[in-house]
Design a protein that fits this description.
This protein is α+β, with helices and mostly antiparallel strands and 287 residues long. The protein has two helices and 14 strands.
Length: 287
């Protein structure tokens, strides 16, 4: 079979139908399906489209694929890819993913078996990244990052108690504070408190007393020997801070004692007692 010769000038057609045309059976033609090209430049085909090169589109043609035929992610528009079209077993990688939304939830990744990773924009007051780890009624949330607005101005790392909105602990990154709701245990703590140079160490310790509003504890074994301290009696080792509830925005006062200052005051009191003992020993002639 010889190769058909082409005319010297291109042949002009108003429309072209190949292989019976697009959806040929519906048009009463055969064979079943082909390609239509209409005068407006539209193409309709029942077959595949193969492009060996870049694909350009738009009023001002812009590349939507690269030379290897891969889609340009910046050209993918919202709602153009259905979740069912993504392979759940595949791994997708990209250099950058930007998500925006007008509502409170800017982005959300959810595992069908439970568990969510969610980026929130709560009314413009702050942005936070939540990780929710389900465990029946004891689901636990870690608020990994929170940047408050100007009214608070702090950045927090917060973990909530299982099945509760109460905070288990949080870190205030701006102030460098760590708050823990219960016990804290470690092999060692490093204290950076200055030495106590005053002359009231024993006076400070003598002034410490229990809170008057606390009734004596009974039937609690060794715990009956301990009670709540009167924070007013702690003097210079007392701590009083304003703590902002990150859920309600309300500030509350927390009172306690500075253990670093307590230690150095205790040390100063011991030294003061040693001096008194040594003075007494010299008076009575003890070697």
């Amino acid at each position: 079979m010889s190769t058909p010769s082409m005319p010297a000038k291109p042949t002009t057609r108003e429309a072209l139908r190949i292989g019976g045309g697009y959806d040929a059976p519906e048009q009463g033609a055969s064979p079943a399906g082909g390609l239509d090209i209409d005068p407006a430049g539209n193409l309709a085909t029942n077959g595949d489209v193969t492009v060996k090169g870049q694909l350009f589109a738009g009023a001002t043609p812009t590349a939507i694929t690269n030379a290897d035929g891969q889609l340009d992610g910046a050209r993918i528009q919202p709602a153009t890819v259905a979740p069912s079209k993504l392979d759940s077993a595949a791994v997708y990688s990209m250099g950058r993913l930007t998500l925006t939304a007008a509502g409170a939830s800017v982005a959300k990744i959810e595992y069908t078996g439970g568990g969510t990773l969610r980026l929130n924009n709560n009314g413009g007051n702050f942005v936070d990244l939540d990780v929710n780890m389900p465990n029946g009624s004891d689901a636990q949330t870690a608020r990994i990052f929170r940047n408050s607005n100007a009214s608070a101005g702090d950045t927090y790392l917060i973990v909530y108690s299982p099945g509760s909105s109460a905070q288990a602990f949080h870190i205030n990154a701006k102030a460098g504070d760590v708050w823990i709701s219960n016990n804290c245990s470690a092999d060692s703590f490093t204290d950076r408190s200055p030495i106590y140079r005053g002359a009231r160490a024993l006076e400070i310790l003598r002034a410490i007393r229990p809170a008057q509003s606390q009734p004596p504890r009974e039937g609690q074994g060794d715990q009956s020997e301990f009670d709540q301290v009167d924070h007013e009696s702690l003097g210079p080792i007392a701590v009083q801070r304003q703590v902002r509830d990150q859920e309600t925005g309300q500030a509350r006062t927390e009172r306690g004692r500075d253990l670093g200052k307590q230690i150095v005051v205790n040390s100063a009191a011991i030294l003061e007692l040693l001096e008194r003992i040594e003075t007494l020993e010299q008076r009575v002639g003890v070697a």
